[in-house]
Amino acid sequence: MTSFRNRVNSTLQIRIQKKGEGISFYINIFLSILIFLNTIAIILHSIPSLRASYNQYFIDFEVFSVVIFTVEYLLRVWSIVEQPGFHHPLKGRVKYIFSVWGIIDFLAIFPFYFSLFNTDLGFVRILRVLRMLRLFRLSRYFHALRIISNVMKAKKEELVLSMSFILFLLFIASSLMYFLEHEIQPTVFKSIPDALWWGVNNMTTVGYGDMMPITHIGKVISGIVSILGVAAFALPTGILASGFAEHLETPKSTKCPHCGEIISVAKK
After folding, report:
1. DSSP code, position 129
2. What is the DSSP letter of 139?
3. pLDDT at 268 over 50
4. What is the pLDDT of residues 45-93, one digit of tens each?
């Protein structure tokens, strides 16, 4: 009798869990669409003719979106204690609020409320750019974006090391070019910070042409830096590629349809 009751309870729990996952799926789809529409609205609102004709529609849609995002943010703060690592009723919620995702969620709605109490339109316009942070929330709802996030977390030390090498090369090359070209082109290579713009263009092989060396040694150094720049920027690309390969080779896991336990399935 006890065994039968346990099986019934297990079956009911699985059904409730599946129903909850189904509701969660539709909510995630709704939020993803809303975030996407918000991004489109922000882009269209920058067009003067559309802003003049449909400004009230943009405002109404912004109010509707902020209400939805605010409710979701408050519910997420309230229910975060159910997640591992956030079990404490106070410290867990504070930990989430000041986490990366918590800050992104807050900054996605903060500009709207701040604009209600601030009359500095210039500052408010700058602050509204933070609304684009809503795009980062999509990584919660799409598996592909979560994979990118997981790979970057797993390879963060290697990425920091490669980016440090790129910055080191950039500063050295720009400083060297400043000392080589400043006396001949004082209005072009005015300072080392100005030369950094040349360094970025040269290392990325963009070459806008607004800053270029005219001395022979400067041209030689520029060519060497261009080659080193291509090699340097290939480092993070290779690191991410290896990270994706490792992630795809990781054994996958699934849930047992009977007991709901995680089952590890080795990848063939």
Report:
1. G
2. G
3. no
4. 888 898 889 989 988 998 898 899 899 889 888 988 888 888 888 888 8
Task: Map tokens 């991410």 to a residue.
Answer: 240
Give the CA angle between residues 135, 50, 47 to the nearest 5°: 60
- Euclidean distance between CA atoms 42 and 52, whole angstroms: 14
Question: Are 102 and 78 contacting, i.e. CB atoms less than 8 angstroms apart?
Answer: no
Is the CB of residue 145 less than 8 Å from the CB of residue 165?
no
Q: Are 159 and 152 in contact (CB under 8 A)?
A: yes
Segment 165-215, tens digit of pLDDT: 999 999 999 999 999 998 898 888 989 888 999 999 888 888 787 888 888
Q: Which two tokens stand for residue 108?
A: 């996605």
Q: What is the pLDDT of residues 127-170, one digit of tens each?
A: 666 666 666 666 555 666 677 778 888 888 888 888 999 999 99
Mean pLDDT of 30-35: 82
Instruction: Tell me how far apart the alpha carbons of residues 204 and 225 are, in angstroms, rounded to a whole number.
Output: 10
Q: How far is 175 from 170, CA to CA, in rounded Å?
A: 8
What sign does the CA torsion over 152, 154, 156, 161 have? negative
Residue type, 120: D
Angle, vertex CA 242, rays to CA 237 and CA 247, nearest 5: 125
Q: How far apart are CA 77 and CA 95, in angstroms?
A: 10
Render 36-70 in DSSP notation, one character per residue.
HHHHHHHHHHTSHHHHHHHHHHHHHHHHHHHHHHH
Phi, psi torsion values for 118, nearest 5 degrees: -120, 135
